[in-house]
Amino acid sequence: MTSTITIDGKTVPFTEGQTIMDAALAAKVYIPHLCHDPEFKPHGSCKLCVVEANGRNVTSCTMPASPDMVVINDTPELNEDRRALVQMLFVEGNHICPACEATGNCQLQAAGYYLRMQSPHFMHFYPPRRVDASHPDIFLDLNRCILCELCVRASRDIDKKNVFGISGRGIDSHLAVNSESGRLGDTDMAVTDKAAHVCPTGAILIKRKGYTVPIGQRIFDQKTLREFHLEQQKRVESEDGPDGG
Ligand code: SF4
Ligand code: FES
């Protein structure tokens, strides 16, 4: 049965089991996000997608839509909070965009542009982070990891390999590699694995592919994060549809 919610005054239909994010994206209403990907179970870690639903702040990627819910999404206040979250992600890691191979393809960078981030605002942490070049085809640089767990979900749910996990707590949380040595080269991860291609930043890179697409022709040189995510949703919907299998 189809019911409706309203988002910023627009009536949006949803079906049982859909989250606010699912319903919004299907109706082409954009809620900024980083850790959500329509191909994977929602995780609710980045908090960029927080909206006000019936007066309460909730993560729209995990909150089920319910009949007559009133959602507020695109306001200066919520976008300011989202900008602050992106700024915190920048200072909490070591994101050196001009020197990063993923520049122009990075969703964190694109979120900064989308939310009109002018500076990191907060003091940089400069945390010591590990770089792992042990795999013949895949490079892992934890300096750029935003703990979205997309690689964890892809490796566990699609590749069925459990190559990645999260270790530590709070400020010490970090991406861990499930091998005795803790090195990627000692896992059975393959360059064809889904987990090798889901990272929204430059934390997981494919070796010998850097700069094959020149700067100026990369994803976010051509489109905004909003356009990218709405296209991603459309692609997943068509793959899931009757003709997509
Ligand atoms: S390596 Fe990439 S995909 Fe994995 S948790 Fe970090 S940012 Fe997310
Ligand atoms: S997209 Fe909802 S918490 Fe990250």
From TrEMBL:
The keyword Oxidoreductase applies. Its EC number is 1.12.1.2. The keyword Nucleus does not apply. SMART domains: NADH-G_4Fe-4S_3 (SM00929). Residues 77-116 form the 4Fe-4S His(Cys)3-ligated-type domain. It holds the Pfam family Fer4_15. Keywords: 4Fe-4S, Iron, Iron-sulfur, Metal-binding, Oxidoreductase. It comes from the Bacteria. GO terms for molecular function: 4 iron, 4 sulfur cluster binding; hydrogen dehydrogenase activity; metal ion binding. Residues 1-77 form the 2Fe-2S ferredoxin-type domain. Belongs to the complex I 75 kDa subunit family. This is Hydrogen dehydrogenase.
